[in-house]
Batch of 2 targets.
Target 1
Amino acid sequence: MGNADYTYPSKSNADNGAHRVAVPPPQPFLKSLKYNLKETFFPDDPLRQFKNQPASRKFILGLQYFLPILEWAPRYSFQFLKSDLIAGITIASLAIPQGISYAKLANLPPILGLYSSFIPPLVYAMMGSSKDLAVGTVAVASLLIASMLGNEVNANENPKLYLHLAFTATFFAGVFQASLGLLRLGFIVDFLSHAAIVGFMGGAATVVCLQQLKGILGLERFTHSTDIMSVMRSSKRKPKFFWISAMAPLTSVILGSLLVYLTHAERHGVQVIGELKKGLNPLSITDLVFVSPYLLTAIKTGIITGVIAMAEGIAVGRSFAMFKNYHIDGNKEMIAFGMMNIAGSCTSCYLTAGPFSRSAVNFNAGCKTAVSNIVMALAVMITLLFLTPLFHYTPLVVLSAIIMAAMLGLIDYEAAIHLFKVDKFDFIVCMGAYVGVVFGNIEIGLVIAVSISLLRLLFFVARPRTLALGNMPNSKIYRNMEHYPNANQVPGVLILEIDAPIYFANSSYLRERITRWIDEEEDRLKSSGECSLQYVILDMSAVGNIDTSGISMLDELKKIIDRRAIKLVLANPGAEVMKKLDKAKFIENLGQEWIHLTVGDAVAACNFMLHTCKPNAVKAESEQWNNIV
Amino acid sequence: MGNADYTYPSKSNADNGAHRVAVPPPQPFLKSLKYNLKETFFPDDPLRQFKNQPASRKFILGLQYFLPILEWAPRYSFQFLKSDLIAGITIASLAIPQGISYAKLANLPPILGLYSSFIPPLVYAMMGSSKDLAVGTVAVASLLIASMLGNEVNANENPKLYLHLAFTATFFAGVFQASLGLLRLGFIVDFLSHAAIVGFMGGAATVVCLQQLKGILGLERFTHSTDIMSVMRSSKRKPKFFWISAMAPLTSVILGSLLVYLTHAERHGVQVIGELKKGLNPLSITDLVFVSPYLLTAIKTGIITGVIAMAEGIAVGRSFAMFKNYHIDGNKEMIAFGMMNIAGSCTSCYLTAGPFSRSAVNFNAGCKTAVSNIVMALAVMITLLFLTPLFHYTPLVVLSAIIMAAMLGLIDYEAAIHLFKVDKFDFIVCMGAYVGVVFGNIEIGLVIAVSISLLRLLFFVARPRTLALGNMPNSKIYRNMEHYPNANQVPGVLILEIDAPIYFANSSYLRERITRWIDEEEDRLKSSGECSLQYVILDMSAVGNIDTSGISMLDELKKIIDRRAIKLVLANPGAEVMKKLDKAKFIENLGQEWIHLTVGDAVAACNFMLHTCKPNAVKAESEQWNNIV
């Protein structure tokens, strides 16, 4: 890294045209505000199709936005019906046993599992955008409901109130989801990173398995029960084995029921489901509880379960859409989920979502549209109207086994290992969530996961990297000398790249760190007897923005540097940064001629002035200043 | 921005050496962890002076670290003493009336104001690093104490308990400050941005003024009283007027007392201070309250007042150190503040800090070292021992006037205007804090200020800018086409720069946004009949880091782009990004030959392949895919 290899570039600027760094023309505040709002809330520009359309067409497009079924139903063909029928019956065979199992997980009457696979899928088929999502209850949400409502109300002592609170929580979950979708605040779920969800789901699955084990072994239930569900990655399941896993739950139910029926095991202590009421969903709109103190619990439960269910559902929808090459509008999906849950809360259903496992089955079974959900709903309807007596003898242990089998699929240790290999911080997030859920409860796990994730973002801004750049041989390119060991230090010039915006959170740190870079460089030059430092070039390419604290920092840095008889030079400041520096009169203060378009230009300008080497003796004078008390 | 001006660069890579982008060699995790910890906690490398020193010297250096007086006292000269004497007496003349006033603001016995100007400055003189800071009570903290403790305990009904709680809060403030300093967590105060503090202080000053007005006009006190203090900027006061403002409080006290004494106004309803006990600070270590429920209030009050006082004190210290060209270690200062308050809490003092106004007076009066604080403390000691009867007749209205005069100086509307001009978001932070304090209370104002500030950081990462780059004429440089209108679009190539790290918070957004860029570009090319899009180059210069969500996003983006028969190219990925992409096998997937050191190299490589223009008809085939339901 010695400077013997450094060749001074010629002053000629012919091949870069000596472009000047300009201050961008001022933009009216409202215009840039409008732009920022659009980027935040409408990054995918969903209203693009509405442009230049007559009013009647706009009305139809609007209706189609909220009810996508109006868009694809006219193009529905018999071919699709065949595929959707098979897929629908397949997921129904999962939905029925799983629905009953998860309802018990939520300490709710098992029939609710069937109700929840009837109305919500119908609503989703009308309003949802995914062609592959299979709607139903999810283990995580069921566990969360049991846990959070269970803190307030004991399901055994007060089952009616507990039931009504579950409906109320579902209602608020729906309202929250729909609101987020309508207000286009969907990006909030982006703050739940994949790593956090892997840990979170794995932790809940662990807890559920342990809980079910206790049930299977006849031990008392856990008092804390947190339940996490689907993994967010596209699984690469072998399609042939998938039929086995798809049929397994229903088969176990049938075999188990037969066994109990034939041996009359229920009279010998084996617990069974028992009586399941016939008939469709009763209305429950009058059951919603809006009084304190329960209202707050219901709201809290609704919001947390709503967010988690939604995050999963949207990720699942997006994964399959990516795979099949169509597009999903996340905010539109949220509205669909919200309406689904609001409708469900009024028709004796509890929280539903789009679980990954069931959607994967739907996908592998060859579904073509959301009609598969309609087929499933019809199958469940038939079950509700005629087939509920069949479940009378189903042993609970079969339900536990079904739950455990689903849960084990959720402990995604492969994803965790991948995280460990690629990005250890993400692994920490994952483990933090896991540990929080297993040893604390689900809310703690969620808080830990989100906090650690956000901390990472804050940390990136608060402690940005500063890199020393060197010249790539035979070029005007300057790169990080640690990344490219063949890059050469430029004599008399220290080139630093700052890898983050300069905000209040990192201004002090940057000032200290850059000062330290300068100190260390001066020490090095002094001890090696080379030319003293004359220029410090700050490469601002990666500085996306700057605030007033950042501008103060640059001012202070300039003062510090000036005192040491060194010149500060800026290279490649972006548009936003230039605007602010101009308004703060920093450019006047520094001098326009010391702001360059590229590091190469800056170095050339410095070298032009740098023809004699300043011996280190000249510096001694400025150092005396430091000794004055 | 047409492509008629674009000249294809020649394939010759002679002047950039066709450098390859390498994956940096793997670093042991512990080594990079150690590096990161050092950057976070020791950015200024304070232990540098300890290197290569014998053990005895290390011990002395260590002692000097905690007691800087041992370092500068041996070099103290008579010259300094002269300056410090004048400065010390000047600030004493402020400290005495202000101390009494602020103590009343805190609903504490006025004598505490004098106690607090005796012991704490002595501690600071031994342990502090600033030569200009003048220690004493501050209006903000006094107001905060009145507000927060007042919620728990009424100062009029239960004055003894209130007093003891104030000591306890001061104790915890000291412990918190010292801990932060010892654990080198000082960067936490960096999260209170200058803009937030301007608004915060202005709001509190407003509230105090209104409160005092009510007192002066004889109206009832506000129940909410929040008090914010010093402005964090170096004021450019005209030194000649400063003597007037420095002498004014004491003069008013003397005149007011004389007036009341001569007219016996205190018998006619004019409230006066009354009896002030003679004698030095009594010990209060036994008065500290460590029982619930008050303990929690004391801790909370202590932490909040401690943080605010500390943030101000360090900023003030730094400003003057910058000005006079010496260095302050923020963490060391925190330890000094902490010990000052712990000692104060045991000697009947309440929270002290380094207020800007008094330090500015100290500075302008020509102080040379912290001995000015010692002189002030001695002056206060003399007052405590002999002069307290002089304050018997001081009317309270004079104290109110003193407070108001100090507060008006804190409503820094000039700073607010500057914020509005330079950075409107900072202005919003400022106003948010102001409104929160004035219309809510201080805690709300603080929470609002910090939240909005942090939101800005999160928003920067969650909604990064993506810029389209064009070629600067006659060069290989590519810059933002909005910033440089003379930059030319490259035909068949879309070059995008991403201005932030690619994390979970922005992965979805970036994928949508980049897809939209591609859609819009393809629409534009189709309608103008030009060559279709064949390459998308992502300039990763400003992408400081990437996590697993980001890598998934790049994977998905590549799939989307591949389907459209477009090639994805990366330019200038940094060391961290390359490492992660390599571990995640993305580089294998993309192809090493599609990662270039500069955008220029990438464009040259694309052009080499791009010699025939692909007509838009070829694209139709890939679009049919989108119509499949």
Note: Residues 9-17, 220-234, 617-629 of chain A have pLDDT under 50 and may be disordered.
Target 2
Amino acid sequence: MENILPKRKVYDRQDAYAKITGKVKYVADLKFSGMLYVQTVRSPYAHARILKIDSSEALKLKGVVGVYTAKDVPGKNQLPKDKPVLVEEVAKCMGDGVAVVVANTKIQAMKAAKLVKIDYEELPAVYDPEEALQEGASPVHGDSNSAAGHTTMKGDLEVGFAEADIIIEREYSTQRAMHAAIEPDGAIVIPEANGLLVYCPGKGPFNIKRAVAASCGLNENQVRLIQPTIGGAFGGKDADINVIAARAAMAALITGRPCKMIWSREEVLLEGTKRHPFKLKYKVGAKKDGHITAMEIKGLADVGAYISKSQATIWRATVEATGPYKIENISTTIVGAFTNNVYSDAVRGFGSPQVDFASESLMSELAKELGMDPLEIRRLNAYTEGSITATGQELTGVNLIECLDKLEEVFPCHEKPAPAPKGKVRGRGISCIFRGEAMGAGFPIKDAAAVNIHIEKDGSLVVFSGIAEMGQGGSNIVLQMISEVLGVSIESMKMSPLDTSYVPDSGATVGSRGTITSGNAAVIAAQDAKDRMSKIIAEKWNSKLEDLVFENDTIFTKNQSKQISFSDAVTLCYKEIPGVYGYGWWSLPSVWWDFEKKCGDTYASFNYGACGAEVEIDLTSGKVEVTNLVAIHDVGRILNEPEVKGQIAGGVSMALGLALTEEVAIEKGILKTTNFDHYLLPTTLDFHQFKAIPLEAKPGTNPLGVKGVGESSSATVAPAVLNAIEDALGVRIRHLPADLESVFAAIEESESLGYIKGGVRQN
Amino acid sequence: MENILPKRKVYDRQDAYAKITGKVKYVADLKFSGMLYVQTVRSPYAHARILKIDSSEALKLKGVVGVYTAKDVPGKNQLPKDKPVLVEEVAKCMGDGVAVVVANTKIQAMKAAKLVKIDYEELPAVYDPEEALQEGASPVHGDSNSAAGHTTMKGDLEVGFAEADIIIEREYSTQRAMHAAIEPDGAIVIPEANGLLVYCPGKGPFNIKRAVAASCGLNENQVRLIQPTIGGAFGGKDADINVIAARAAMAALITGRPCKMIWSREEVLLEGTKRHPFKLKYKVGAKKDGHITAMEIKGLADVGAYISKSQATIWRATVEATGPYKIENISTTIVGAFTNNVYSDAVRGFGSPQVDFASESLMSELAKELGMDPLEIRRLNAYTEGSITATGQELTGVNLIECLDKLEEVFPCHEKPAPAPKGKVRGRGISCIFRGEAMGAGFPIKDAAAVNIHIEKDGSLVVFSGIAEMGQGGSNIVLQMISEVLGVSIESMKMSPLDTSYVPDSGATVGSRGTITSGNAAVIAAQDAKDRMSKIIAEKWNSKLEDLVFENDTIFTKNQSKQISFSDAVTLCYKEIPGVYGYGWWSLPSVWWDFEKKCGDTYASFNYGACGAEVEIDLTSGKVEVTNLVAIHDVGRILNEPEVKGQIAGGVSMALGLALTEEVAIEKGILKTTNFDHYLLPTTLDFHQFKAIPLEAKPGTNPLGVKGVGESSSATVAPAVLNAIEDALGVRIRHLPADLESVFAAIEESESLGYIKGGVRQN
């Protein structure tokens, strides 16, 4: 691969100018003539039977075109996998969509939505996943609230704990959180002569298209989706976008007019999917020297009212729950329970941040109990080449020690922080992780992407990639790979909009799979175009194929005896062949997994990471400032350094919120966090000293050698920060987020225990 | 090929419902938010130097955003091949665009256009092509008004005329005519992040894209064209659409907003291209038995102010000018002259209707002089298998005699018509033609089309074809071919909109090349998809590839032991391969042509046709009713009988206008025909007894065996009708159209000569 990609030139993103100058159009900016606005009417109850829907008052309002309910859904009233387009009989959580109002203006639709009178019969409900699984709990679906469950077993737990010199048990829990993309979810659906045209910023455009086709009773070829610019996804723009697109599509099909539905921030909070709250009980046994002999993990996730992708999320959490450690005896069981809370689904990290928070808090707790250095206990147990995971997979290309070495080099993890000003205390914490790449065995589908290149007659290029550009820079990587192989400047290329009519289906842009799959596909596509052109040029020149060099928008022979500009070469080729193009398709190798025996290979490859955090805590307010943060990530090969650093920074920022401030509060099924004034996002002001370190150690197993870092970067921060808080206060917080209240409580405990006296750390 | 296409099921057009119910959106129907309207300011003079352009009053008008002139053109101020986007120094004909006004509304733009003050200096001008070529004529471009000229020579003219028993000389002329699509030309151009999006109903979408790119100084990949539904083209929607798209693109690029320009009917008449008026002098020598011994043809076409595609039009006229007859000694020279008239360009038939009118009038005149039957003289001289054309091409697959036989069978060409009521006279006339298929040697480009098929995961299909659907039914033919090869119902297919982003470049839909090129490409694409699926199915079933049958949305083995629905088969295939698709590309064979020696093969294949017309002429008004018309066309193989009959009927209707009513009058460069009230189109009320007969004789040389009939159908009618008028009146009209005035003059002459007495035909 190195010889195909000899240089590493870094390019600005093509979409940067338009985004910075505000010229870019998001779906909310789009208007079409005759367009109607669609507003959802939602259940105010967590569990309630619909007795009667009276639309008469709403329909009297000026500008109202129609009110539609479940019985108007043209096709199958079920989105993947179980959420209905609109509730038929029973609303299963607060915010469940019961009807849609369609009107000429947004204001009219919103007013009319309030006039739709729905009579409900409230039903018994469950809000706590533990209660939900108890005998006699009111079932959300069918007979049981058992929604998902995965187990891994390795060795003999009894033997392992018997070997241990010390056994500790701890319980951790994580919060319900949201994606918090600045762009809320929305869609516009336009009826066309023979189907529907959907404008919709989804990260799985082909999945949305299929969801719309099914819910509208159309063939797949009757639904075309064009992706407008996406204003961030962070694991979202997925299940919620299906809901929105299906409702707007239904309205468009019935009214015959373009229909727009953009959720407000409040609606995103109310009906949008959330990150799974987890409760995780860990029991770990270790020798005095720190070697772990056994680990038992029992977990419970709140699935909420619909299953969606909870099975896969919990599967990932289960297979990664031990952290990146060599342990002979393991038992992990994580189950998911239906409740009458808003449903949980994919959020950046997809189960990893929850278990990584727990296992990495645990490792520091174990180190403390053993009086060991937190880095040393990790190094001692860390996965190395040939280690066997909890599911029996033999690891290759392991770069964990390299991450820890780098952490030791750049972060003073063995030293105490400098004393804080009075009234403040400082502490340091670390963490490390491993994470399976891409979809893995939890999603038994072909994990592939395709890139097509069309070269115009004037030598300019149009590139078609199915990987969604959500702000992560995925398009730029594809263009860069093509530029490197074909030797053409990135300025002569254009990334086509993502349109399901002609962009190759590359699955959803999830699981940190974008660069691995589309980067490799892009190289293959460019090589395909290069081969096609080389054959013609070599024949004209009577040269050998391998003597041709594509560089600096020129093609020349190695001895430079002949040369032609790239655009002239294209003109030449068009005289011989119908089109100058390149097709590339690349798939991750399939992994072997035994769903019966719960063992096998979970992912084709893994990446590793380590984090060091220093905090300064204000003892009066409980405010935690992260004063230094180092995020080291095993990226295989760096394709574009600013891009990968940017992606790490983004993950860290999201994880800071997870560690300290973000939580969607629900009390007895009723949403309490209704807008960003209560859902506190970190800003650039919360970043102090920060270093993103993409680490090149052993390359990934794919031809490009890259690894995906989109999600890993959001998984290491919370445990490192909470370990730092423990270091500062001597008191452990085991629930996320470590918000002002819980930190303040920990300060009080710390003071009562004498760890802090007179505003000064004592140890 | 027969075994690939065993049955001939006829399908309704997919776009029929939307068109009939008015749901279809034409470019004029499209609106985009923030859209501006662009209006052209034009020269009122036929030849004038621009001294000063004062936009100040226009710019003061409310809603006016800008006034732009040639100096604002962002790229090259030249459209293919010579017309500027906006005139720089000298307007070369009335209607030449000098400036554009851009405003918030159409009305504002129109008002403001009138306020742009332009000072002109009138220049000497030429209006008559003969005068234009004379020494000392004021040149339109450069030094000379000689714009184009082609010659063919065969045998020895002197020898040929010496052998003749009779020599006659006649002069014919044809009018300036327009395309008269009901939808006038227009475009909307939208600035996008990295280029322009063009909505534009052009028949050569990739050509327009390239014209816009060049005139805007953009790369080709920065211009994307989406073709809205086309409301008819008839040879138009070509050069004029380039003009409109380039002006709207210029405005969009400057203002950064969507810009719309739709020409009014008056504007189409004023600035739009027209059919070339021809003057043709024929000298023909024949033996007493009717055998033609020599033919000399001298022609002159009015090119108007810009060359555009005049060279190719005149080339086609030159090589077809003799008509379909075996003649040993030929000299044909047709030249084109620049004048300060509106410029001439492609109109359905592209030079053929003009020469066919002349040569077929001549044949009937010669028959009359020799006292022969008009059918017999044609039969005697007609091209047959192995005949050598004027350019030395040996013909194969000749079906002219078959057309004449059919004419004799269905049209009473040897009998006199039944006597007309008093005050009316009746007559009968015939004609026959040959016509080169597709682009031929006059356009030395690859004459190819491509069709791509994408099969969705649910088994529904999306088809991509670069051939424009202009109302002729080209899309339906492509779908039908795929349906026949893959055995899937046409209802499960969708023809993708023509979008240059992803539809394969298939050249312009001109030259009657649509079905030949895209029909064959469609079969290849479908076979490609079939092969791809067959390989997988055959392996699963352990069957031989050749034992698989695709029929009735099912795939089964010949012995019917195994079967699977088409959609299940697709699902199966998706598990094995990344995509289920088919690519097809088919090109007409290149023709050998010597541009130096003016000889060689003009077209890869030819089609033939014959026409019989009966007219009834009102002696009081001069009104000619075509009371019976039979149009026989050699179509190779009939793919879809209603479609091909419809296409013939359309051509006949257009040719009826050419024969009798349509003319764009220009006097000294000044347009006199300003709207449809003066430009008289035939309607369905002008059709009496009419029969379109697509004739299957020897198939075409392409795999499908089809021939193109889009233009031939418009070439036979005028001479047949004018021969019938001559038959009725005994007086020959040699200028098109035979309008009320000229027919009335002929009636007066006929009466003065005694051919008609007391309102009754005497012979």
Note: The mean pLDDT of chain A is 95.
